[in-house]
């Protein structure tokens, strides 16, 4: 088993008030583990404000990210949260139940990590299986097995 997301960076049944809060909650896990700075969360939110809800990649799933950043990102990393109550991002794929945060320092690691995420997302029913998890441990195994 290749660990895509560390257990410390996974939470199930997170309460978020709106899409910005959902991104903040996913990003906060990475701040708590000293992987990113607050500026990176603000960049992710600003990207959605400028470009629209392009991060909602499929039904119920958002991949929050911003441009690679060497100062606000300390190392390439991912976090994952499931939302207790699905949130609208203003996308045809709403409501979002699963939010992943991707943070990279440079374009090469950005592409590499995106490739790993894409491979995982190709697994049938992965988003639905993740959304149904009732604990962080269960979610960890769904995403990493």
What features would you describe in this structure?
- The protein has helices at 19-32, 38-51, 107-121, 126-131, 136-144; strands at 10-14, 56-58, 61-64, 77-87, 96-103.
- By secondary structure, the protein is α/β, with parallel strands linked by helices.
- It has a single domain (7-144), classed as Mannitol-specific EII, Chain A.
- It is globular.
- The N and C termini lie close together (6 Å).
Topology:
Blueprint: E1 10-14, H1 19-32, H2 38-51, E2 56-58, E3 61-64, E4 77-87, E5 96-103, H3 107-121, H4 126-131, H5 136-144
Parallel strand pairs: 1-4, 3-5
Antiparallel strand pairs: 2-3, 4-5
Short recap of the structure:
By secondary structure, the chain is α/β, with parallel strands linked by helices.
Low-confidence stretches: none
CATH homologous group name? Mannitol-specific EII, Chain A
CATH fold-type name? Mannitol-specific EII, Chain A
Q: Order of strands in the sheet with the most strands?
A: 1-4-5-3-2
Structure classification = alpha/beta
CATH level-two architecture? 3-Layer(aba) Sandwich
- How many structural domains in the coordinates? 1
Strand-and-helix sequence, N→C?
EHHEEEEHHH
Globally, the shape reads globular
Number of helices: 5
Mean pLDDT: 94
- Output the CATH class name: Alpha Beta
The residue fraction in helices comes out at 40-55%
Q: Strand tally, please?
A: 5
Rg (CA only): 14 Å
Main sheet record: 5 strands, mixed
